[in-house]
Amino acid sequence: MRSQTDNLGSKPQPRGVFHRSKKFWIILSVILIAIAIGLGVGLGVGLTQGSDSDSDSNPPSTTLVPTPNTTETYWQPKAGETWQIVLLNALKNTSLNVSVYDIDLFDNPTSTIDTLHAQNKKVICYFSAGSYEPNRPDSSQFTATDKGSELDGWPGEYWLQTDSSNVRQIMTSRLQLAKSKGCDGVDPDNVDGYDNENGLGLTTYSSVDYLGFLADNAHSLNLSIGLKNGGAIVDSVIQVMQWEVNEQCAQYNECPLFESFIEANKPVFQIEYPSGAPNVDASAKRSSCGNSSEQDFSTILKNMDLDEWLEEC
Ligand SMILES: *[C@@H]1O[C@H](CO)[C@@H](O)[C@H](O)[C@H]1NC(C)=O
Ligand SMILES: *[C@@H]1O[C@H](CO)[C@@H](O)[C@H](O)[C@H]1NC(C)=O
Ligand SMILES: *[C@@H]1O[C@H](CO)[C@@H](O)[C@H](O)[C@H]1NC(C)=O
Ligand SMILES: *[C@@H]1O[C@H](CO)[C@@H](O)[C@H](O)[C@H]1NC(C)=O
Ligand SMILES: *[C@@H]1O[C@H](CO)[C@@H](O)[C@H](O)[C@H]1NC(C)=O
Fold first, then answer.
1. At how many degrees (to 10) do helices 165-181 and 110-118 cross?
2. Which of 76, 84, 164, 239 has the greatest number of beta carbons closer than 10 A?
3. What is the pLDDT confidence band of residue 67, given thresholds at 50, 70 and 90?
């Protein structure tokens, strides 16, 4: 529930344009036949209407561009920051020599954030923006219609309908909580429902739209925000995102998808889960770390629980 869902059991679906699912081709055929029968020829204008209902791997039709606002002073970290992420419980060890901590929004008291700030560290507060979790203080505010399929590997956790005004209101409150605790930025998880069996028809377009909503609201509170995983939508959202938090791009050979963050001098906070952690031998470490430091990726080795154990590359 704290990290991601799509990589635990199986390899995520290929995301390229040419890897359409069988379902996509069936739906496309049905749409084409319906158009041919229903409209005959020459009615090209009608086609735009149907485009929202097709495949979940369509490229988003918009690119998010920040509203120019010279008064904004939210934190904008640079590529290569060092970091730690602890999501299992409230953070205990605040004294690692890293510049950024990513910790749970709900589990950590304001005093922990103050302690980190006193050491000139920045604090990113994690919450799930795209899934219902049963044990959060605001869980009862989600309605039945907000929820879709259960997340694979996370019993009791459900994909959320990110267009829902109720869901968006709850997330606005979570951003306000982050602000009131003094977080510098937020790490909204599970924004890639399109890459998973979500039961809600979520598409890449839904994700881009939702991230635009989250970014506007975070920025207006002077909070930074980053993209979590979401390799397929990097180009559409990178302008309003201050970093990428990525899981297992080395393991799945997907790191080039996130290279544009480095080119924009924004961090790629990369987590690899090497086998055998916390006892990682040299060869497991080499394959997890790859050449990430040369590429300026901020790569750390963690175990799946995201407890306090960490090994830097
Ligand atoms: C915190 O982590 C640092 C670095 O690993 C270590 O030196 C220190 O002993 C730890 N502190 C506690 C209280 O565990
Ligand atoms: C902390 O890390 C920085 C580089 O990230 C290094 O320059 C510095 O010497 C480290 N401090 C200690 C006490 O290890
Ligand atoms: C916005 O946040 C940054 C760092 O998190 C801080 O340096 C800056 O002073 C804040 N700006 C305002 C207007 O509060
Ligand atoms: C500019 O950003 C500040 C701080 O985030 C916000 O309070 C203000 O409303 C914004 N102004 C405009 C015109 O968007
Ligand atoms: C590092 O990896 C990237 C691919 O992710 C590759 O393009 C590049 O050549 C590698 N650099 C070195 C020095 O091996």
1. 50
2. 84
3. confident
Ligand 1 site-directed mutation target among 92, 93, 115, most atoms within 8 Å of CB: 93
- Indicate whether residue 72 lines ligand 4 (CB < 6 A): yes
Under the banding of pLDDT at 50, 70 and 90, the label for residue 295 is confident
Q: Is the CB of 70 under 6 A from ligand 4?
A: no
Residues 178 and 90 in one domain: yes
Distance CA 81, CA 78 (A): 6
CA dihedral 255, 256, 262, 263 (to 10 degrees): 180
CATH code at 165?
Answer: 3.20.20.70
The backbone torsions φ and ψ at residue 103, rounded to the nearest 5 degrees and listed phi first, read: -135, 165
Q: Verify whether ligand 2 is closer than 6 Å to residue 97 (CB atom).
A: yes
Please classify residue 259 by burial: count the beta carbons closer than 10 Å to its beta carbon, then call 0-12 exposed, 13-18 middle and 19+ buried: middle
Q: Is 82 in the pocket of ligand 2 (CB under 6 A)?
A: yes
Structure tokens that stand for 299 in this block? 């790569």
Give the pLDDT confidence score for residue 199 in this predicted structure: 97
Smallest CA separation from ligand 1 atom 11, residue = 93
What pLDDT, on the 0 to 100 scale, is given for residue 57?
A: 55
d(CA 147, CA 285): 39
Closest CA relative to residue 66, chosen from 244, 220, 276: 220
Q: Indicate if the pLDDT at residue 54 is higher than 50.
A: no
Q: Are residues 75 and 50 both part of a single domain?
A: no
Residue with tokens 């979590």: 228
Residue 200 phi/psi, 5-degree rounding, is: -130, 0
For residues 149 and 240, state if they share a domain.
yes
CA of 148 to the centre of ligand 5 (A): 39
Ligand 4 centroid – CA 240 distance (Å): 15
